[in-house]
């Protein structure tokens, strides 16, 4: 879903005509309908492997976490406790209780809940402002460069960070089902941090050459 939505961001910024874009959306919807029908027509034992109780539990736990507090709703309920106990100013840096074994995956999927418990609303706003600043500067870099391919890389990077942040924050706050997606640049996770760092390095390189061309003129 993240890759698909990031691709949609790039397509929207590529200057594609509306008619072509609608055709592409229709094609995607058609493929999704066909795949859904194929899954529904499969034998029950295969369906149970594709639509497993664990996957269904993400939706049941999202819709009514307190009903399944001991099972599928355990993470989300403890995330609510962490966010609620933080208040405006938090319990203090390092004073989170939920991260001591009550909230599973507190260092990855639910790091924002721990930040909220320790630093409160202001800590969460600080993190959101930092992510917004990175996204904004990435988009500005894409607008300033005269290289179309470089612009699309910047827009795709900004879209990826924004989408990934929305999915993580939405899962921790109960807005959308939990997906296990990390919070960009904040959550523990080597592969996520490495990929995002590489993308930001490419964006900085694009911005550097763009500034160089504006200052010294086009390279021969």
What are the defining features of this structure?
mainly alpha, about 220 residues, 8 helices
Task: Please characterize this protein's 3D structure.
This protein is an all-alpha fold. It has one domain. It contains 8 helices and no strands. Helix 7 runs antiparallel to helix 8. The longest helix has 34 residues. The protein is flat, with a radius of gyration of 21 Å.
Question: Which helices and strands appear, and what pairs or packs with what?
Answer:
Blueprint: H1 2-13, H2 18-41, H3 44-50, H4 53-63, H5 74-86, H6 111-144, H7 148-173, H8 190-216
What's this model, at a glance?
Helix 1 packs across helix 7. The protein has one domain (52-216). The chain is mostly helical.
Sequence stretches where pLDDT stays below 50 over 5 or more residues? none
Strand % is under 5%
Fraction of residues in helix = over 70%
Biggest sheet architecture: none
Our Rg estimate from Cα atoms comes to: 21 Å
Gap between N and C termini: 42 Å
- The dominant shape is flat
Structural class: mainly alpha
Domain module tally: 1
* Average pLDDT score: 82
Order of helices and strands: HHHHHHHH
Helix run count: 8
Q: Tell me how many strands there are.
A: 0
């Amino acid at each position: 879903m993240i890759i698909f939505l990031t691709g949609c961001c790039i397509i929207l910024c590529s200057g594609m005509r509306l008619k072509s874009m609608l055709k592409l959306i229709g094609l995607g919807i058609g493929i999704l309908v066909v795949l859904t029908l194929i899954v529904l027509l499969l034998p029950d034992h295969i369906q149970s492997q594709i639509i497993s109780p664990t996957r269904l539990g993400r939706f049941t736990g999202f819709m009514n976490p307190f009903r399944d507090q001991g099972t599928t709703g355990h993470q989300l309920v403890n995330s609510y406790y962490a966010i609620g106990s933080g208040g405006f100013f938090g319990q203090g840096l390092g004073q989170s209780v939920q991260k001591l074994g009550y909230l599973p995956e507190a260092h990855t999927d639910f790091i924002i809940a721990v930040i909220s418990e320790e630093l409160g609303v202001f800590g969460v706003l600080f993190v959101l402002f930092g992510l917004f600043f990175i996204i904004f500067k990435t988009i500005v870099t894409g607008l300033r460069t005269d290289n179309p391919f470089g612009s699309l890389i910047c827009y795709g990077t900004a879209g990826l960070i924004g989408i990934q942040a929305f999915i993580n924050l939405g899962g921790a706050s109960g807005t959308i089902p939990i997906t296990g997606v990390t919070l960009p640049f904040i959550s523990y996770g080597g592969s996520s941090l490495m990929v995002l760092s590489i993308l930001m390095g490419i964006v900085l390189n694009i911005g550097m050459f763009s500034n160089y061309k504006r200052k010294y003129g086009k390279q021969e």
